[in-house]
Target: Terpene synthase N-terminal domain-containing protein
Amino acid sequence: MMIEKATEPLDQLELIDNLQRLGVSYHFEDEIKRILENIYSNNKWQKEDLYAAALRFRLLRQHGYDVPQVVGESILERAREFTTKLLKEKLDEQKMDQNVDVLVHHALKLPLHWRMLRLEARWFIDLYEKRPDMNLVLLEFVKLDFNIVQATHQSDLRFVSK
Model:
């Protein structure tokens, strides 16, 4: 399975993030819990970059792990303002990859944690399909799962509206 193929902690975190954003993480809850437990208890993260630290922090917090905030709120707010300004400048310069450009525009509009999960999954499926590192098996699975869930919702709606 693809989860076992991801051996590096950052690769595992990115896979978990993709599974969540694609709306299929509920199929892999045990595997995700095992990976996050391993990452939480393992201290190999001393040399991580900002991206890896932020991803690790967000995913562990989302799954209920007690991850202390090392950085104060005021510093985080200044960092958010700085990165937002920098990202907007890069967008204006049009020097980003098209897929990254779309992702940045989307992130600047509304934070991920404010979005509706199924709508975000539908949007992210289209973006994931265009990525060069896209996993075709995962993509087919995600599309099938999305369509099954949609059909179930439509069936339930028909039943309720009778």
User: Anything to note?
Assistant: Residues 71-109 form one domain.
